[in-house]
Amino acid sequence: MSEAPYEEVDALPVLAEAPVLAEPVRSGGAVVARQAATVAATGFVAGAVTVAAVKAAGVRRSRRRAKKRSQLVNVVASRSFLVDVHLLGSRD
Fold first, then answer.
1. What pLDDT was estimated at residue 78?
2. What's the predicted TM-score (pTM) here?
3. Which of 46, 27, 44, 24 is CA-nearest to residue 36?
């Protein structure tokens, strides 16, 4: 008779304590969805307020600028550049 490559054991597990039923994990999906909706709504309202403020300020400014432009030199072209300045210390 040949031996099997594994040993078969007939046993029952012994628990150290009384079994405690685990509570189901509550999904935070509803909370996350509510937070995302709140952030989106807040961002939309803030953007709308900003657009309204810029439009209101732009009407007043454009009248003043029109008067100043007629008095200034004729501008042929305009360029704007983003400048990033870094102040470096010595390597000593």
1. 78
2. 0.35
3. 44
Q: Which one-letter amino acid corresponds to residue 33?
A: A
| Tokens 């597990």 found at | 13
**How far is the CA of 54 from the CAs of 35, 51, 61, in angstroms?**
28, 5, 10
Chunked mean pLDDT (size 10), the chain, 92 residues: 74 76 73 88 92 79 57 75 79 72
CA distances from 9 to 3, 4, 12 (A): 14, 13, 10
Helices (H), 1-92: 29-71
CA–centroid distance for 5 within its chain: 57
